[in-house]
Amino acid sequence: MRSLVLLTLAVLGCRGSTADSGRGLSVSWRGSSDGDLSATAVASFCPSSGLLELIATQGDSGAGIALFPPDTNVQEGSYPVFLPAVPTESRPGAMVALRWFDATRLDVFEASAGEVRIESSEGGLLTGSFDVFMRGIGNSDTLLVTGRFDDVPVTVGNASCGTTSRRRQSAPLH
Predict the structure, then answer these.
(1) Does 160 fall in a domain?
(2) How far apart are CA 90 and CA 87, in angstroms?
(3) Helix or strand or coil: residue 167?
(4) Is 49 helix (H, G, I), strand (E, B) or coil?
(5) Most Cβ neighbours (<10 Å): which of 4, 10, 16, 84?
(6) What is the mean pLDDT of residues 67-77?
(7) Whole domain around residue 144: which residue ranges?
(8) What domain count does the chain have?
(9) Which residue has the higher pLDDT, 9 or 112?
(10) From CA 21, how far away is CA 153, in angstroms rounded?
(11) Does residue 174 sit within a domain?
């Protein structure tokens, strides 16, 4: 699962801005660093794995949410956060990642507690909010993070979606 968060963060870095491809996500954080991010978001649902990825980027900064619905439909309600290091997926469940560059380094965080709340998934648009506690990857920094996403269009992924992180999880990296 950690590879899923790292893969999402890599995608955040490669995508550039999503400014014209969807609707908005806003997030703010307080703790070892303070900041905020508002960006257009995109979401993709993978029927074969039951994974929904919501990603928002602005320049080199980004936020990603992975939702694991209880079945093949994203439903309204609470999705508790679980750590990517946990070997099994909790359903319903969620993972949240955040990254940005400061003047001298790349800061990367993953949620270790909290929840994502889906308020509406009607008409192919996703609306909700989240409150999570995050830990830095590779350091001891911590953040309290709140965020909201409104009317993010959900597309269906292609036949190979959701397989990359699972392959990496079982195959050694060279």
Answers:
(1) yes
(2) 10
(3) helix
(4) coil
(5) 4
(6) 89
(7) 2-169
(8) 1
(9) 112
(10) 9
(11) no
